[in-house]
Amino acid sequence: MEKVSIRQGEEFIKLGQALKKAGLVESGVEAKIVVQDGLVKVNGEIDTRRGKKLVAGDEVEYDGNSFKIVQEG
Question: Which residues 6+ apart lie within 8 Å of 42 measured at CB?
């Protein structure tokens, strides 16, 4: 499983930003569309909030790919 890190000093990363950082979408607009269309799962549940705050330990699934949020440092 791929890992996406939260910057040091930050407590969370937003779902749309995490999808971009993981390379699963190319833009914020694409992230907004796939999240609003219910194509993204957070911790096994569909989440339609692009601004959903993800913390270390959260797992995200989209289009057959998954990644886990980790704290940098």
Answer: 15, 52, 54, 58, 59, 60
